[in-house]
Amino acid sequence: MPRHQTAAVQLDGQSAQLLLDPNQHSGGVGEYLLHRMKPYLPPWIVAAGTGILSLPANLMWNDSAAGAVGLTLASLGLTTATWWAGKPTSQQRRLHSAITVAAGTSWFTAAALAGPIAGPLPSLYLIGAPALAATWNIRQLLRVNPDGAGASADKGLLEKVGLAKTLVTSATVQPNKASFDLQLPGGELTADDVSKALPRLAGALKVAKNAVRMVPDADDASRATLTVVPHDLLKAGAPYPGPSHPGGSIADPVHVGIYEDGACLAMFFPGDPEAGRNAMHLLGMGMTGAGKSEGTITALTEAITRRDVIIWASDPAKAEQTLGPLLPALDWAALTVDNTKAMITALRAVIPARTSWLAKYGYKQWEPACAKTQADGAPGMPYLIAWFEEAAKTIRETDDDVFTGIAQEARSAGISLAVSLQRASSTQMSTDTRASLGSSWVFGLRDDRDAQFALPDEAMDAGASPQAWKDKKPGYCYLVANGIPETFWATPGRAYLTPVDAIEWAVVEFAGIRAACDPVTAKAAANAVGPAFTQRTRHPLPTLPANPDHADRADGGIYEENTAVDYDLTADDGDEDGWIDPDAELPPVTRVVEIAPPDVPPRTRLSQNEARGAMAQILAEFESTGRREIGPVDFMEHCDRFNRSRQWVSKQVAEMVLTGRLRETDTAGRYEIIPLHHAAA
User: Fold this and answer.
1) Which pLDDT value is given to residue 551?
2) Which residues is 265 bridged to in the sheet?
3) 671 forms bridges with which residues in the sheet?
4) Between helices 500-509 and 292-303, what is the axis angle to 10°?
5) What is the rounded CA–CA span in Å between residue 672 and residue 549?
């Protein structure tokens, strides 16, 4: 980034400079003064250049009749062109420009023919040139002066977009963000008028449509706050950084991504009466390729690292493609329509059973203490997340209001329902169900009609527009959920990119602390659906590489020693049954045997840049062989080339996705190779 790169936003005299380089002007007083002078130098440079160029012009055209005619015609032509080109501007600017060009070209013509020091020409130059340059400096000063902005003949930006008489009362500047407090004319404009003007404001400021947002004042309809974000800082994305609260409670926030200002994008499943927050029922929505499934994987990966939650998940459309790496950590995975129907039936049955248990022990709603052993010795009850991915198929095979009863009753039973599909229209989902799913996680959509199915009017009026992304920016999203302040509803975020290795690690690492289904829930489910629950498929834990940290050692962690010690074990240190006293001293060493390492070529530790180059070379080799899809496991087959850990390889694959070299597929951990020339474009 250039050292002095900035972005400026000006609203009717309120100018905010967004510094993109925190070290700007760090060179001292001289550099600071030069920076402040640069906008005013062009008129003086033109004036000086005119005087200097008159010297060679005089040598060429002195006493030349043809030169006199040509210079005169050029002077008239430039003046006329300036007057014509200034037609779209104000009359004042047009006249000022034409007079400046006429005066400058007339003097230059006279100086070229008679000489720059002939007669009154030197005095005219020394007086007229600085005066004309100063008039342009004065004009520029008045243009950026807030006191002079209202008197300008040019319309102010807010007036141009239909917000005349609106005052900017204050401005707050942050890196890559400016916020303006607007005072609207009472009785003439409201926050709704600002909302309608947002697309025009974005066009006037030359930023993306959803880079301009508005939050109305809750207490005064004539006031609103306008936020402008000139640059999209989410382009780089963010790989999944690991569990946010490892081993914690599901009541802790579940981090699923980042907002445009770097803040964590988090959701809350259980309710919290002290915070005034209800339990969350979630509607997930996004068109094909918008990254909705990747968001699901990230949210569930976070959940399986908590100690007091069980997860029932369904995906009858893609089966193991999305949920595959998570299956060993799920209490129940329904991957067929029949199993999904059984899960829904079981959910209906467990709601009253769990509610009765909570009432018995004095809980008005689920809280972390519910998961602990109770005072009478009864086992605790973990929270239950029921996540239905690609729910459109489930609804088609059952009924459009199949989730309505569950959504209306499950909160009081310590259950969160998440329903994820591409389009939550009335033909896909009951409006009663949609109304009961109070939270929404919305990825790129096809048009604003789809957005209306998932986002509240407040978010869309404030500038939320997922239809601007469609499937061009996978992972971009809006989160409108319990516990999320309304000011963030229209703030874009991006879901983490979670590699398969990170999921498998979380599945294995937290298997020891992960909760099991409690007896109350298990009994109610078994009574309702029988073997569909009691004989549900339980998937084994994956096998991770032993001591993967050795992959980062210079020798690859293969050889610890090149000798072996041969002990004399003939001494009778145990009884006749072969028992050996573990506290007894080891027998003396009788001989040392040299063990030569196997014939394996040495592994050279590569630098970061060299290792990335090796990754790019391997990807090119895959592409040259005609392969279209790959995953981190494919790179690990060639890990000897760059001597790095599995987590490092997964992170590099995630970076390739973010740079456009790879593209996510519907299969978790598999990515489509994008040709190099397409990725560069």
Assistant:
1) 36
2) 257
3) 630, 664
4) 20
5) 29
Cα 305 to the center of its chain, rounded Å: 23
598 burial type by CB count under 10 A (0-12 exposed, 13-18 middle, 19+ buried): exposed
User: For strand 439-442 and strand 282-285, is the pairing parallel, antiparallel, or unpaired?
Assistant: parallel
For residue 28, is it left (φ>0), alpha (ψ between -120 and 50) or beta? left
Closest C-alpha to 421, from 434, 404, 410, 405: 434
Per-residue pLDDT, 636:
72
CA angle 71, 134, 99 (to 5 degrees): 40
Phi, psi of 100 (to 5 degrees): -60, -45
CB 252 within 8 A of CB 259: no
Sequence-distant (6+) residues with CB within 8 A of 311 are 300, 303, 304, 329, 330, 331, 332, 384, 385, 386, 387
Helices (H), 62-163: 65-85, 91-114, 121-144, 146-149, 157-160
Structure tokens at 536: 């549900």
Nearest to 478 by CA among 468, 464, 467: 464
Residue 382 CA, distance from chain mean position? 32
Query: Which residues on adjacent β-strands are paired with residue 266?
Result: 255
Closest CA to 635 of 653, 656, 623, 655: 653
DSSP H or E segment with residue 300:
helix 292-303
Cα 490 to Cα 463: distance, rounded to the nearest angstrom: 6
Residue 321, CB half-sphere, CA atoms under 13 Å: how many? 15
Residues 673 and 666: beta-carbon distance below 8 Å: no
Of residues 497, 110, 205, 532, the one with CA closest to residue 347: 532
- pLDDT beneath 50: ranges in the chain: 1-6, 18-26, 145-155, 547-578, 596-598, 600-601, 603
Give me the pLDDT at residue 1, please.
Answer: 41
- Residue pair 36/141 in contact by the 8 Å Cβ criterion: no
Beta bridge pairs of residue 564: 593
- DSSP collapsed to 3 states, 611-657: HHHHHHHHHHHHHHCCCCEECHHHHHCCHHHCCCCHHHHHHHHHHHH
Instruction: Give the whole-angstrom CA distance, residue 133 versus residue 187.
Output: 45
- The whole-number pLDDT of residue 138 equals 87
pLDDT in tens, 249-293: 999 999 999 998 778 999 999 999 888 889 999 999 999 999 999
Our CA dihedral for 319, 324, 326, 327, rounded to 10 degrees, sits at 70
The predicted pLDDT at position 28 comes to 66
- What lies within 8 Å, CB to CB, of 179 at 6+ separation is 171, 172, 225, 226, 227, 228
Which uninterrupted H or E stretch holds 404? helix 404-409
| Structure token pair of residue 656 | 């390739």
Distance between CA atoms of 209 and 61, rounded to whole angstroms?
Answer: 56
Residue 442 backbone dihedrals phi, psi, to 5 degrees: -115, 125
Helix (H) or strand (E) holding 173: strand 167-174
Can you give the pTM of this predicted structure?
0.60
